[in-house]
Amino acid sequence: MPKYRVYGVVTATKYLGEFEADTKEEAEGMAWESGEAYVSVCHSCSGEVDGAEIDSLEVEEIDEQD
User: Cα–Cα distances in Å, from 14 out to 3, 4, 17?
Assistant: First the structure.
């Protein structure tokens, strides 16, 4: 009988900051270049998580009236 390795894909978010830009695309580019687009995993979790990285960014416009 074959054996299988099974991995769970974990999804999370990390706040990267606020960026003043003309477009969402420009803000996303600024975020990628900001030095904050990384994932840090504590020593305890590092034994359970492999390859933690940011695959994509989600950009939302800030409503200054809030």
Answer: 35, 32, 9
3-class DSSP state of 44 = helix
The answer to whether 16 touches 37, Cβ cutoff 8 Å, is yes
Q: Give the max Cα distance, the chain.
A: 62
d(CA 39, CA 64): 29
pTM above 0.85, yes or no: no
18-65 pLDDT per residue, tens: 999 999 999 999 999 999 999 999 999 888 888 888 999 999 999 887
Cα–Cα dist 50/38, whole Å:
14
